[in-house]
Every structure is written in structure tokens, then in C-alpha cells.
Amino acid sequence: MSATPDTAVRTYIEQHSAAFLDDLAAWLRIPSVSAQPEHDGDVRLSAEWLTAKLKETGFPTAEIWPTDGAPAVFAEWPSTDPDAPTVLVYGHHDVQPAAREDGWHTDPFEPVVKDGRMYARGAADDKGQVFFHTLGVRAHLAVTGRTAPAVNLKLLVEGEEESGSPHFRALVEQHRDRLTADAVIVSDTGMWSETTPTVCTGMRGLADCEIALYGPDQDIHSGSFGGAVPNPATVAARLVAGLHDEDEHVAIPGFYDGIVELTDAERALLAELPFDEAEWLRTAKSYATLGEAGHSTLERIWARPTAEVNGIGGGYQGPGGKTIIPSSAQLKLSFRLVAGQDPDRVEEAVRDWVATRIPAGIRHEITFGAATRPCLTPLDHPALQAVARSMGRAFDGRKIRFTREGGSGPAADLQDVLGAPVLFLGISVPSDGWHAPNEKVELDLLLKGVETTAYLWGDLADALR
Ligand SMILES: [Zn+2]
Predict the structure, then answer these.
(1) What pLDDT is attached to residue 409?
(2) C or N: which end of the chain has fewer Cβ atoms within 10 Å?
(3) Pairing relation of β-strands 183-186 and 86-92?
């Protein structure tokens, strides 16, 4: 196998790119905004449009999967090779809200091609990245002479990712038998930059909680009673102050138990990325970095767990003073988790830690939301190597580097329920403006996505067999 691009693949893509972009534009015209009830019909229309397009692409099965919310689309194209591995592609067909008055230069649901870019809501997140799989599989078949892909190819395209995927876990559990796969490819991420193609290897998980602290039955006079009863706002502040030690390590006992540490090789690879900390600080709208001692900024945001205070309240907040001991105080905390951390065990550790720090006379309630697990695929996993190899061919033999994602997503549910490694294949770049006005996709990168998947099914079939 050579690591060079295939001219037959490139010619095929060139010949079909105009029709491909027209089709993508047609899909982008459907305002499938899952957060806004007035667009429920459009989300359904988007699912129907995609189902029809996948059938036209050649998928023998393409169907709508209803949920208690917005519909998902499932498609399946079995290989003719009896021992072919199975790959599941994940993406979503819903989009973030968008309106001209948010600062769009053109109608967000009327795609415009300008300077090699297509501008429209969903161009990069995520319709463009779902759609490159359609031409990619056609190119794969055309140049290999196959009648079906080299892998058993499945697609699951969710309809409410932008609304927090409230029914995704249940959907995956309900259809577990039809979704089984040897690997999951998530196409809902990006790469480092136009000139530094990268593959993401994992995402952090997330756990969050609210803590309510109750003291006196009502706000009481700080002169008559102050100094002699516990103050719930002071207790809240002490909890916050105790979350981290002086090295910015999370100070909750057991919090780091079991985490997968970065290897020296991974740290060296991360350090090779052209990271400009001053520029990054500007995007963070912040004035200095601060984090766990002994780790770089990229390590801190990608590979280390965190504890953050998202909100703190209690007592009098109005103008002037009010000399009281407040009756209650509240905290909202969240924890980003990394591979090896179990959200249930983190919850237990937080509960235990809080309980030991509450003085007599303060009652507390602690409530956790639904957690998202972290996911991580090791660098030497053959499927990850296959993704990097296919991408390298599409990017003219350039070295593919590895990143991680600091955020959290439904990909972890696929890893969790299906027990398959999750790989991230995205061609979006930071300037694409996800969730922002004037979202766009770079057309040359979009076609690199097509080309990567044209190689990927063959490369993955070899890697996973
Ligand atoms: Zn997305």
C-alpha cells in the first residue's frame, strides 16, 4: 500500500464535486433547528431529505428512527466480503439557531459560495461533514470496482445534538443490535488548522452538580446573631476555596483515581503542535493562563480533569448593604473527566468530600445531572492508524498529528453502549464559526474529507480484519 494520493479517486471527486455541492446546498436550505419548536417540521424534513439522498447514494437501507424528540436517520450498506469489519459513522442533521440579525452577512439558510467557501448554518456543523461520506463512498466504489463498501458501513445521523442529545442514549440502547460495530467514526469535530491536519483521539467527559446549603430558617440580623451561628455563604465559599490546592490540583480525595496518564510519547506529540499561547489567550478572552502544575495548556484542556465553579450565590445581592446572615447559599460545580475516570465514582467522591466539610447547623442537598463519560482511543490502535493514514493520503502525504477535544459529547454513549473504539474524522477548522454568525466550510477541505473516506473503508478493512 502506498501513502500517496490516488489520481483516479481525485478525478472521480472532481467530476462529481459540482453536483455534490449543489446537493449539500439543498440540504442546508432546510432550517433544521432542533432547539426551536417552530422548526420541528424542518427537522423532520431534513431527516426525510437525508434518507432519500442516502438511498440514492446506494445504501440498501436508509430509514428514519423516531425518538421522543427529533428523528434520527439510520442507513446501512453491508459489504459483500463475508469477513468484513463493521464501521458506524456518527453525525447530526440538526443545526444551531441562526437569524440574519445575529450578524449574518447573508441569509443563514440560503447557502452562498464565495472565495472557496460555502456559507450557511450547518455548513461545517454538521451537515457538510455528514455529507462528505456520501461522495466518499461513491468514489471508493468507483475506483475499486466494488458493488458494496469494503466494510459493513452504517450511518447514524442524530436530529437533536444541538439540543444536548436528550434521547440519544435511549436511541442507541434501543437499537443496540443494529448498531453493533468494530469501530465508530465521529464526523462532528475539526482539525487544528488548514495547514496542520489532525485527528482527534478522545473527548473529556462531564459531571455536574448543584449544592444547596441551608442555615437559619430565614435571613437573620448579623448584629443580634452574627458570630454565634454558622453562615451558609461562608460554608459555600470554603467549599469553593477547598476545591484546588496551591498547585491547582483538584483536592477532592479519590478524584484522580484510575486516570489514564499521558505517555511521554503523547506529550511530545502534543508539544509539536504549533500552539501559540498568546493567540489562544485572546480566543479565551482571558489575561493569563492558570492550571494544574506540571502540565502545558494543551495538556490541561485535553488530557487533565478539572473542577470548575460555574456559579455561586446566596445572601443579599441588591444595592447598598444588608446586615444579615443569609438563610441559604448555592453552588453550581462541574467536572471535566478524562479516560479512566468513572462518573459514578467521581460523584461519590464529591458527595463524600462535601459531607465532611459541612459544619453542624448547616443542612445541604447535592444534586447531580446526567453525566457524560470520557472517551479515548490509544494512539497505537490500528483503526486510528488507518484514519491517520487515509487522511495523510488526502492531504498529499502530509504528517497527520493528533489532538484531543476538551469538550464532551454523545460519542461517549456510542463507545459505552456498543463497546467499540471511537475515532474522530473531521475536516472543520476553528475559523468555520460553529454556532456563530457566518458559519462556513472550506470547500477544498470538504473535498479532502470526501477523499479521506474514499480511502478509509479500504484502509479500515485491512486494519480491523
Ligand atoms: Zn455538531
Answers:
(1) 84
(2) N
(3) parallel
Quote the crossing angle between the two packed helices 443-464 and 382-394, to the nearest 10°.
Answer: 140
Stated pTM of the model = 0.89
Residue 280 alpha carbon to ligand 1 centre in Å: 22
d(CA 94, CA 161): 7
Q: Rounded distance, CA 376 to CA 363, Å?
A: 39
**Residue 364: what residue type?**
H
Q: Domain locations in the chain?
A: 7-202+375-464, 205-259+305-368
CA of 168 to the centre of ligand 1 (A): 14
Ramachandran bin of 362, using left for φ above 0, alpha for ψ from -120 to 50, beta for the remaining angles: beta
**CA separation for the pair 186, 74 (Å, rounded):** 14
The number of beta carbons lying within 10 Å of the beta carbon of residue 44 is 17
Higher-confidence residue: 465 or 441?
Answer: 441
The alpha carbon of 161 is separated from its chain's Cα centroid by a whole number of angstroms, namely 9
Q: Which helix (H) or strand (E) holds 79?
A: none
Cα-flanking dihedrals φ and ψ of residue 342, to 5°? -100, 120
DSSP 228: S
Q: Tell me what the mean pLDDT of segment 190-196 comes to.
A: 94
pLDDT of residue 3: 65
Asked if 87 contacts 457 with a C-beta cutoff of 8 angstroms, the reply is yes
| pLDDT at position 1 over 60 | no
Phi, psi of 367, rounded to the nearest 5 degrees: -125, 125
Q: What is the mean pLDDT of residues 155-159?
A: 98
Rounded to the nearest angstrom, the distance between the alpha carbon of 159 and the centre of ligand 1 is 10
Distance 318 CA to ligand 1 centre (A): 40
Amino acid at 38: E
Sign of torsion over alpha carbons 421, 427, 432, 436: negative
Over residues 187-205, the mean pLDDT reads 94
CB 134 within 8 A of CB 73: no
Q: Which residues, by Cβ under 5 Å, contact ligand 1, an ion? A: 125-126, 188
Same fold, 7-202+375-464 and 205-259+305-368: no
Domain at 7-202+375-464: CATH code? 3.40.630.10
Distance between Cα 231 and ligand 1 center (Å)? 44
- For the cut 90, the answer to whether the pLDDT of residue 2 exceeds it is no
What nine digits make up the cell of 301? 484542556
**DSSP line for 239-278:** HHHHSB-TT--B-STTTTTT--PPPHHHHHHHHHS---HH
- What residues form DSSP beta bridges with 92? 158
What is the residue-averaged pLDDT of the chain?
A: 96
